[in-house]
Amino acid sequence: MYKEDIYEITPNNWEWFAQDVLFHLGFSIAVGPSEGVDDGSDMIAELDGKRYLVSCKHNYKTRKNVGVREECDIQDRVVQHDCTGFITFYSVGATSGLKRKLIALKDKASIDVIEIYLDNVMDIIPSMQGYILQKYFKRPQEMGRNLLSHTDFEYKPLFCMKCKLDILKKENVPRSLVGFYEDSEKIIHLIYGCKKCVNKYCNDPYWAEIGQIRYIEQMLSWREIVDEVVSRPEVKLSEDFYKYWAFLQEAILQIQVPQGWGRWL
Ligand SMILES: [Zn+2]
Question: Rounded to the nearest whole angstrom, what is the distance from the C-alpha of residue 197 to the centroid of ligand 1?
């Protein structure tokens, strides 16, 4: 349904769009499209200390799947740029020949391959913020739907409990966490914020990164952890525990990555 809109993106913008999508998925961009790797159509993205060479292909005219010939020497390029992973970011699909090659790279060369094709892009678009989408699409309001969207939906920031920085902003997501703090009276508080602000208070073994729990599967595990903590024998919870837990859940919905995308972690 957004297919036509996707093919109206210019090749140059396709790379910027790739950067925004990867950022949305929790990656940081080590080398962006403006700096250009090789012929300028590639980038380098990082996640959990792993470097990925990103190959952006936008066959908007032919709409033909990317084949082996269009994607030469993957292994050499990955090694040359000090990466251990490879991401396809295509506005089409891949031919079966290329898919076989990617499987072989995974199995035989232990290159971590992440395949993002048109269908994946169309799945992820609805979870993205309208202000990002409006850079690329004419009707972002029809695309930027997310779980909370209804007519009076308004973006609600989630502030670090210490410094009041909005930890949902894309540049802050990878630097933020949620955890528990047990005070001197053995009362447990739910705390979230920038790592540098709240890390030192997390004196319970359980904590999670905001960049992690934005994946719905991870959020479900985090909910189990919260359930476990609150049902500990003789636990004493702070009065605002459930208030902050509700704030957190409501806020994370705004940046939640849909089901199935958890495999990128
Ligand atoms: Zn902070």
Answer: 5
